[in-house]
Amino acid sequence: MTRPFSKILIANRGEIACRVIRTSHRLGIATVAVHSEVDARALHVELADEAIHIGPSPAAESYLVGERIIDAARATGAEAIHPGYGFLSENPDFVEAVEAAGLTFIGPSAQAIRAMGLKDAAKDLMKKAGVPVVEGYQGDRQEPEFLAEEAARIGYPVLIKARAGGGGKGMRKVDAPGDFAEALQSARREGQAAFGDPHVLIEKFITAPRHIEVQVFGDSHGRVVHLFERDCSLQRRHQKVIEEAPAPGMSDEVRAAMTGAAVRAAEAIGYTGAGTIEFIADGSAALRTDGFWFMEMNTRLQVEHPVTEAITGVDLVEWQIRVAAGEPLPLAQDALSIGGHAFEARLYAEDPAKGFLPATGVLEHLTFSDRARNDTGVTGGDAISPFYDPMIAKVITHAPDRDAARRALVSALQETHVVGTATNLRFLTALADHPRFADGRFDTGLIGTELEDLVAGESPGALHLAFAAIAALDLDLTDRHLGWRLWGDAVHDVIFMHDGAPLECWLVVHAPRSVTLHREGEEPVTLFDLVRENGRFKARTGAARQRVEATVRVANRQEGRLVSILTQGVSHELLLPDLRKGTAFVDASDSVLAPMTGVVVVLDVGVGDAVEGGQRLAVMEAMKMETALISPRAGTVAEVHCTAGASVEGGAVLVTLEPEEAA
Ligand code: ADP
Ligand code: ADP
Ligand code: MG
Questions:
Q1: Does residue 302 have its Cβ closer than 6 Å to ligand 1?
Q2: Cβ atoms 408, 432 nearer than 8 A
Q3: Ligand 1 atom closest to the CA of 391, numbered from 1
Q4: 388: Cβ below 6 Å to ligand 1?
Q5: pLDDT band per the 50, 70, 90 thresholds, residue 581
Q6: Is the CB of 203 under 6 A from ligand 2?
Q7: Who's near 113: CB < 8 A, 6+ residues apart?
Q8: Is residue 240 in contact with ligand 1, taking CB distance under 6 Å?
Q9: Residue 24 belongs to a domain with what CATH number?
């Protein structure tokens, strides 16, 4: 096979940069990484043959500065630029600048990106190409009163969308006319902050919707093929969480209609490279040929492309590179087929129990399961910084049928171990194991309606607690005197905090290498022949003296010692509180804290205001996402410690209420 280019530059970071580098090297292509300040030692820098520092940590000063990236390509002699996803991948001005510099952009033409870049114009274009679109208003008028009338005409519920939107940002569902004005304002603000464009469109909200998208691919010889569909209906905040291919319940007839519409859409704009046509489908009953509508086209490689790779055996990045070099599509439509079923789960540093609040921190420990393809851009010791998307990895499984692939996903997630930051790992596992997900009949509302169950912490069992207690108390297992007391065995009372609730147990040390963990209402667990080697424990347990192993990490935190433990495929985090700092666990109901470092965009209250429980006090923006801060109870505002527009640190006190009067 020919080598399409001799050297390419990857204008991205994280897992996708690593992903592109891997395929490039397999094709014998040399790679150039670019990086910001905080990414100087990132994995993508390490994997690439060369690396160029392009600026400070904020993306706006590094990964989004096209000029510096083009300069880096020139300086290193790269012939082409792969943009990954996000950042400059859908920026037509960048594409033109790349081409003007005599370089190749590995992606579609600037004209195709422009045609699909704004959701309103794209919908008009698709309508003309005979592709069904969601009913709505996508015109130029933006007066709030006019848009409210349009919403009423379309019929509630409606969805307000920033026309420049992406990644689920700038979108608000409105159920009733009374909520329209405020939702509009908020969507416009988010659109402005994230994309520099407050312009919105209004859409009918499809009830029981399923998100089904089609992977398309075009070459510069006028050919377009599709690589089947992906179902991305498992979403939170309109962002994908678990994706799969093929879509459950898809009939040959509906597949033919959908993929046909997708290919028509791509052909209508003379599309080249990898692209995705996203449809919203009526999921209230079986899929129908007249029950899906175009939502938008993403003119880039999608985050969830690996599930398509798994079922087709195609390396989509290789295709991107070959097509950009002018080669024809490697396979014709009739040479493509679906093999088995695949899932992808997006592992994020975020706290599902706190409204999926993005988290930051150093990944003190990170290991993946051998059952899965794990696409990541970080390794143990790396930090999840507040500057970029907090994705840690994508966990991808593939098997002959849906249930086998789903069970592999559950196991792979259980065997994934992350220490150092909050993650959605347990949430993902619960989701992958959820009966409604297992039977394949769900819509985009599943996470919302089952949220309470999905974030409910499963309580760690006695085996977990036993290892956690030894690690948290830092018991010296070799101490001959450890278990020997004049009055008998040594007993340690241990109170852990688990998911914000105390969890009490006691550990009895019988002899140097033997302990029993007791917990009210549970069978005690005894461990013998305990040995500890750094972060690993080995022991025997039960009458059969069967072997057990555990990986344990302990981190010292302000609030105490945080123990993360993985045994028998299940991991848990437990905090051994530092009781000298007792206030840390008192419910701080009198103070509203900044949940993260960011900017206060709206401040709703002033000193002396009476507030209701649940009333919004302020809106913070971090990572281009808005979070409303609400009052924990009814009361009077005693102090306000911030101003609108102010940057605040995570954990800072923003608003304090007057103490509650004794009843
Ligand atoms: P879609 O545009 O349909 O949401 P993807 O899920 O592939 O498709 O992601 C869209 C874009 O949004 C990507 O470029 C990705 O970098 C970005 N993105 C996805 N999730 C997040 C997130 N949690 N925070 C910030 N950006 C995100
Ligand atoms: P983004 O560019 O942020 O990906 P999309 O237009 O693709 O924006 O919409 C994101 C998600 O919002 C979809 O995957 C879908 O779950 C939901 N959504 C979008 N439009 C509608 C609609 N008209 N009715 C119901 N849900 C919708
Ligand atoms: Mg989308």
A1: yes
A2: no
A3: 23
A4: no
A5: very low
A6: yes
A7: 90, 91, 92, 95, 107, 299
A8: yes
A9: 3.40.50.20
User: Mean pLDDT across the stretch 170-181?
Assistant: 96
Query: Do residues 636 and 657 lie in contact, with contact meaning Cβ atoms separated by under 8 Å?
Result: yes
Range 403-426 average pLDDT: 92
197 in a domain, yes or no?
yes
pLDDT of residue 483: 47
In the chain, the number of structural domains is 5
Q: What CATH number is given to the structural domain containing 390? A: 3.30.470.20
Q: Structure pTM?
A: 0.79
Placement of tokens 């590094």 in the chain = 62
368 lines ligand 2 (CB under 6 A): no
User: So what's the pLDDT on residue 124?
Assistant: 93
Q: Are 565 and 468 found together in one domain?
A: yes
Please compute the mean of the pLDDT values over residues 474-502 and round it to a whole number.
68
Mean pLDDT to the nearest integer, 180-188: 96
Domain span at 48? 7-106
Spacing, Cα 305 to ligand 3 middle (Å): 14
Ligand 1 pocket: which of 85, 195, 621 to mutate (most atoms <8 Å of CB)?
Answer: 85
Atom of ligand 2 nearest to the CA of 206: 24
Instruction: Note whether 102 and 174 are same-domain residues.
Output: no
Nearest CA owner, ligand 1 atom 21: 167
Residues 358 and 451 in one domain: yes
> How far is it, in rounded angstroms, from Cα 197 to Cα 181?
18
- Shortest CA distance to 60 belongs to which of 37, 87, 90? 87
> Mind listing the pLDDT tens digit for each residue in 346-381?
999 998 888 898 988 899 889 999 999 999 999 999
Ligand 2 atom closest to the CA of 168, numbered from 1: 3
Q: In the predicted model, what is the mean pLDDT of residues 435-440? A: 96
Check if 616 is active-site: no
Reported as type and span, the H/E element at residue 292 is strand 292-298
Distance 202 CA to ligand 2 centre (A): 12
- Residues 450 and 525 both lie in one domain: no
